[in-house]
Every structure is written in structure tokens, then in C-alpha cells.
UniProtKB/TrEMBL annotation:
Record PANTHER family: 4-NITROPHENYLPHOSPHATASE-RELATED, PHOSPHATIDYLGLYCEROPHOSPHATASE GEP4, MITOCHONDRIAL
Signal peptide: none
GO CC, any one term: cytoplasm
Any GO molecular function: phosphatidylglycerophosphatase activity
Name recorded for this polypeptide: YqeG family HAD IIIA-type phosphatase
Amino acid sequence: MFERFFPDRYVASTYVIDFEKLYADGVRGLIFDIDNTLVPHGAPADARAVKLFERLRAIGFRCCLISNNQEKRVKMFNEPIQVDYVYNAHKPSTRNYIRAMEIMGTDRESTVFIGDQLFTDVWGAKRAGIPNILVKPIHPKEEIQIVLKRYLERLVLHFYRKSLRDGKKG
């Protein structure tokens, strides 16, 4: 029942992902959510985010941000990062996941999506056929509609962890 929402991987933070291993495994494009994936909700890119994208470029990745936010927010975050982006993405709609791959020149086998929400980020990536990594939210302060979804996410993640303990893949 909940399996359709299970992430391919679940890690503590974007900043602990072994990007060198992903590249060695053939991944060439990374699609990122912004809020609570890279920085707290509404925050500008911080030094840690800037350093991450410099590292990703040095490894050889193409990167694209996709956000349900309006362009003003995404553009503000992206100013010091300088990667491609899609705003007002309507996640979990698959259209802009596919658009991000087209922009980067990648496909489903060479792309990974990274985000903090199951019902928008992960569900959209899964529907688009893109491997995904769920990260724990950076900061507890969120918009009310996200707070409500977090209660449902906890339920899904309970069954996700149980499936891992039982030896089933998500």
C-alpha cells in the first residue's frame, strides 16, 4: 500500500551523500529540491551549499534545481550557485523532472533526484522513473501544508523502515 511512496534511499542529509560514488556508478545529472533539502525553508544559498555545487561541478555532474516555488525564490537561491533550474514545477507532476533531464542532457539511468518530501519530491521522481534519495529536512520550520504532510510521511517512513528490517527493498 505505502510502497509506491518509499524512497530508493533515505539518508540524514544531502551533505552526507557520496557523490563520487554516484558518479563512478554512472550518474551524470543531479536534480535537487531546494527548501529543507539544501537550506532551511526560504533561506538563501549558504557557504555549505555553494561549496557543494562547486564540488559537484568539479566531479563532472550537471545539476538542475526543481522547485514548486516561484521564480523569485529559486533565482535568489541560485544566484551564487549558478546551475539550471525549473521553478513552479508542480511536483509531483512528472513533466518538470523530465524537463530537468532534457536541460542536463541526461536520462533516467544517469540521473538521481534528491529531496526532503515523500509526497512531492520522491513520488514525482518515482513516477518519472528517476532514482531518488530522500533526505531528512534541514529545519523544523515549514509552511502549514508541509507540516500536515509530515504526519503522513512519518507513517509511510515507519512502514519503509519496517520493510528494510524485514529484508524487502523499498
